[in-house]
């Protein structure tokens, strides 16, 4: 007998995640991955979200291709994320993620608190280029292990104070790059197999339906509001991760 309540909640979370993705470039995993993790476990959640992540970020990376910032930032960021995803996927297979979730949630709360206390602070562009690779590696490890890289990648890009189009372009390229490693490794390790492949394909649908709604709403989002939405999303991610860890 299918779990209709769980399926309905998962569909709704993916749809709302699609709205957030279309509006801000992030947010798709925020509701879906924690909810799926709570209902079916972290490995299942990571496997189900793998193909939606690949599709929607590939589409947004292409749509915003004219708004990419300097190659010296985006390519070290994305390529290091590839390596990190491979490492994180091995962690997913072998180790529990509770401690990683807890530490990351605490780090997120510190960052959000700092940004609220000092709203005008920005990471210098030169420093951003220097740390792009280590940040990308850390984000990839977290993505491979628990299905969320936003606690690392989004604060980094948010601190650079990128314009919305530049932000969406960069984060989409990063997420898409991570999926290029994640999906083959999930298949090779057996985490993604059988009915989970079909479930991952079907999960693309509600996410895809939500994205045009978010793209339309983005027309009414100012730079200040976009920054506040980003911080709000990070706070939600941290809360979800803390609850999952505890």
> What distance separates the N and C termini?
30 Å
Q: Work out the strand percent.
A: under 5%
How many strands appear in the DSSP assignment? 0
Rg of Cα set: 17 Å
Major sheet attributes: none
Shape: globular
- Number of structural units classed as domains: 1
Query: What structural class is derived from the secondary structure elements?
Result: mainly alpha
Helicity level, as a percent range? over 70%
Tally of separate helices: 10
- Spell out the helices and strands N to C: HHHHHHHHHH
Low-confidence stretches: none
Roughly what is the average pLDDT, rounded to an integer? 82
Topology of helices and strands:
Layout: H1 4-24, H2 28-40, H3 42-63, H4 71-94, H5 98-117, H6 125-146, H7 150-159, H8 164-189, H9 195-217, H10 223-245
Helix pairs in contact: 1-2, 1-9, 2-3, 2-10, 3-8, 3-9, 4-6, 4-8, 5-10, 6-7, 7-10
Tell me what you see in this structure.
This protein is an all-alpha fold. It has one domain (4-245). It has ten helices and no strands. Helix 7 packs antiparallel against helix 10. The radius of gyration is 17 Å and the shape is globular.
Gist?
With 246 residues, this protein is mostly helical.
Task: Write a concise keyword list for the protein shown above.
mainly alpha, 246 residues, 83% helix
